[in-house]
What does this fold into?
Amino acid sequence: MIDETVEEIAEMQTHSSSVVAIKAARALLALGDREFPTVEEYERALERNSDALRRANPSHATLQTTQRELVSRVTESDAETVPAAQAVTEDVVAEVVDRVESAKRRAGERAAAFLEDGDTVFTYDYSSTVLEALTAAAEAGVSLSVRCAEARPRYLGRKMARTLSEFDGFDVTLVVDGAAGIFLDDCDRVMVGMDCIVEDTLYNRVGTYPVAATAADVGVPFVVVGAESKIVGGGFAFENEQRSVSEVIREPADGFAVENPAYDATPMRLVDTVVTDDAVHEY
Amino acid sequence: MIDETVEEIAEMQTHSSSVVAIKAARALLALGDREFPTVEEYERALERNSDALRRANPSHATLQTTQRELVSRVTESDAETVPAAQAVTEDVVAEVVDRVESAKRRAGERAAAFLEDGDTVFTYDYSSTVLEALTAAAEAGVSLSVRCAEARPRYLGRKMARTLSEFDGFDVTLVVDGAAGIFLDDCDRVMVGMDCIVEDTLYNRVGTYPVAATAADVGVPFVVVGAESKIVGGGFAFENEQRSVSEVIREPADGFAVENPAYDATPMRLVDTVVTDDAVHEY
It folds into this structure.
């Protein structure tokens, strides 16, 4: 069961943080059905399996933080029997799963408080957490203008524009990514999601860095929204994913190369605020 | 003849500076076939027609500067007879046409001197003047790596990548515009063309500003190449062209707007060097 989950995580093309992290947390429950002679052996098995799950995607922040938390909370509980340690594991898994499931919504609700009636927001890519924030704002009766950049190569901004076009009182405009410099000018803030934040770097969909650099030059605040579990410490090695060149150009590229990285690295000095389910971090 | 040229300029969708400016300069030669009672009346006709030509595209920098030069040089020649003033006009038109025709090549040759063997250059859009610079470099045996951003919405960077892929010793890579932040990192400089420079603003293909802002943040010099006649003083009102929405998205945009401006405005403080046929301007 755990081995299968390890393989599944390693192969998963989707980077939906919550799905992967929840799957991995629940995989550890398989150890609750086995017998162990001592608490120490149970903890070693927990650690070994958790390591395997984390290594299945070393650049997946929420997976890394939730697994580390699970192991340390079980170990620190100082359970006196194996069944007690297994019961603690079960409780902590349930709590972590609940937190991951609700983190997006709570981060979105917190971020919605930043949006005032009549504001203009610039957003890049399709972020389900930004969508939570805009949904919460809409439900509170806040009217917004939203400029959606298309997010080449996969045009995920079109999906954002289409989704937001259903919201009452929202005035939505789709523009090419390069038009950021023109349309940021009358925006109150940029709001984007995140893949993760590792020390002084925000990793997010390729194209985030130019939007952040332009926003800083225009003088528009740059707000990032996402689960607190996506903020990770050092020792975490983010690995960029190289996606298919056919997303960039379908015709044959004779005589030239095509590169298509999935993520870029934005220096945190260009970020003004990070809103998570736990807190508002000002930079 | 002049009226027809005025209409033609007003309708011209292409912004090829040299073609428009040369056409307008040559249109003034029509006044050489007419009779005028005094030099003053000839000069007034010249001024009136030149004004009409300039007004046909008030945001076309080379048209504005060449027309102003033509009128002032003929007026300042203090010709004593109408045929003498007409002869001066003919000489100045020939000189201006020659300069416009060769400006691109000379600006390109001057810019090529900035490129050293083994350099990596980031370029945006398709600029025939940048192409002149890269051609001159290739002819001098300089090997370069060139990163071409695709320049949405019309993907003119693909044309640049295809053209450069024919050059011996060139290593060409095509990337999406949003990938600038990743690929600028190992570039020696950015080199782009220009529509015009008006006081403290560079107008160029939409998407230039985010590249310039990112280059400044990464610390890569930003070099602009173009004819000196594209640098104009105050009083010149650049008008952005709004292009077809179908260039951004072909499917129906139900419930949301789509905007597609042709140019953006880059603050000159983000530009390090402007190379023209006349000079190298450092900022």
Summary: Chain B has a mean pLDDT of 94.
